[in-house]
Structures are given as C-alpha cells and as structure tokens.
Design brief:
mainly alpha; two-stranded antiparallel sheet; 4 helices; 2 strands; about 5% strand; globular
Length: about 90
Amino acid sequence: MSEKLPTCWLCERPLGRKVQWHHPVPKSKKGRETVPVHPICHKTIHANFTNAELARFGDDRDRLAAAEDMARFLRWIADKPADFHAPVKRAR
C-alpha cells in the first residue's frame, strides 16, 4: 500500500519542505480551521483577496480556485516543483 503525500489545499501539488498554514476563514472573521499550503500559494491567496472576500468563500476551495486570477495562477503553478518560489505581485 503506497502512502499518499500531503498536498497543498490550494494547488493540490505535493507539499515541499516549507509549509504554511492558511485559515480559509480568516482569524479576524472568527475562522479557526487551518489548511496546509505552499508559501507561494499562501501569498497569492492574500495578494488577490481581502479577508472579507475570503470569509465569503469560506472553506470552498473550488470556488476560490475558480476566480479568474486564481485560476490563471493555478494553471501556471501546476507543473512547478513543490519548493518552487517566485515573487508574488499584489493584484489590488
């Protein structure tokens, strides 16, 4: 039986050496649950959405991923290695 590697909540690629913990519902909006994400994925989430917007998405990863800028990021990151890093531009 093969063991499944843990994956990033956002991009669903295997996690690398560095893992960050993202609150799908921000702590400022009473969120408690955390999910593992790559640092670049975490930065991209917060560069594209306010805490109020993230609270409206809640833990609906598919809805968040379907947003135009996020979908473009996910297509771009899909074939990158787990520990890939690049600067993240703030969308707003």
